[in-house]
Structures are given as C-alpha cells and as structure tokens.
Amino acid sequence: MKFKYFRECLSIFFHSIKVGYELMTGFFRLTKLPMPIVTVFGGAKADKAGIFYRQADDFAYRCVKNGISIVTGGGPGIMTAANCGAARARKKGQKARTLGIVVSGVDQNYENPCADILSVSYFFMRKWLLIRYSIGFVVFPGGIGTMDELFDLLNMIKHHRVPELPVVLIGKEYWSPIVQWFEKSALKSGLLNKRLTKLFIVTDSIDEAYEVIHSICKIYSES
After folding, report:
1. What is the distance of C-alpha 116 from the center of its chain?
2. Residues of the domain holding 180
3. Alpha carbon distances (Å) from 70 to 4, 6, 38, 93, 198
4. Which of 24, 74, 131, 149 could make a disulfide contact with 102, Cβ separation 3.0–4.6 Å?
C-alpha cells in the first residue's frame, strides 16, 4: 500500500514537471506571435465545401490583413480553415501570425498545411493556452470538443478568471438550441444569472464578427 502511494506521488510529481515545461514552452511560442491574438474554435469535421469552412478562412484572412494574429486547436476542419486564411494573408517576409495547438494522441498525426504546430499532452493545457493570451473568441459550429471549449470559456468569464472579452458564435441556426436552453430553460428555472446570457453574441455575418473583434483589438492597441 505504501509503495503504491509513493509511486502515485512520484507520478504526480513528474507529471507536474511535464505540465509546467509544456506550458512554459507554449507561452514562449505564443509570445512569438504579434499581438493582439484572437482564438478560433470549431469542429474538426467541418466540410471544406461548407459555408462555415469558408467563413473561418475569410475571418482569419481579414484579421491577419489588419494586424490580428490567429490561434486555433491545430487540427482539421474549422481549425485548418482559420490557419490557412491567416497564412494566406501573410505578406512576404512577414512574421507568422498563426499557431495551431494540438493534443498528443489526438491531432498530432494530422499534417496542418498552413500553421506552425505546438503539441501539448493534455486538453486542459490546450484550452488554457488558447484562452489565456487572446482578447477575443470566435466559435464556429462543432461537436463535443467545441462545446467543451465554449462552456469552459464562459465558465471562466462567469467566475472572473478571464476578463469579459468578446465571444462570437457563428451560425444562428446551429446555436439556436443552446440560446434557447440559456433563455428558456436555465434562466427561467433560476439556474442562471441573466448577466450570463449577455456574455456572447450569435450571428451569421462574418462582417459583424470581424467588427466586434476589430473593435476590441483597437481598444487593446490604444491602451
């Protein structure tokens, strides 16, 4: 029993060293991106011919054209679309303005054609790096992973672990059940503060999404 306890303590100790090292490496890689940084979340299975893929590419292109760097989860689908849009906007000789952060054992076998890749060992580390240094978040339709990232972000904003930065959800029809749950179920049942329903906006317009993000970036640049 004592040996098992000691082995577990040793395992936790070495894991903590590994986590600390990878977070420091992630911090260093992110500081290489010109500020400000915006995070794009979205599904890995998004169709290349689909509207959300094209919108993610267009949004990232506009951001980089106007001096805003893009970080994503580094995998396929929306993540690749955003990385490629950002890379397409990069001028010759200009410093890279996009980074993809993948989780070991999940996306590391996928070759992202457009971004430098940073690999971390755990999901919580990727989420922390994607949230900690960004000043805006754009969330495209996705599955369980995207929902996990969105709700973790909103929960951290709720508890003031991160500032109340813009969170833009793309796709009114897709996000409609979530909005209804907020407004008609959780809020009506008294399980949610009304303030929390104002933490994000939902739109079909990339123009609107870009304007929201560009506005906070202007404030960041002037401060």
Report:
1. 16
2. 2-222
3. 44, 43, 5, 18, 24
4. 74
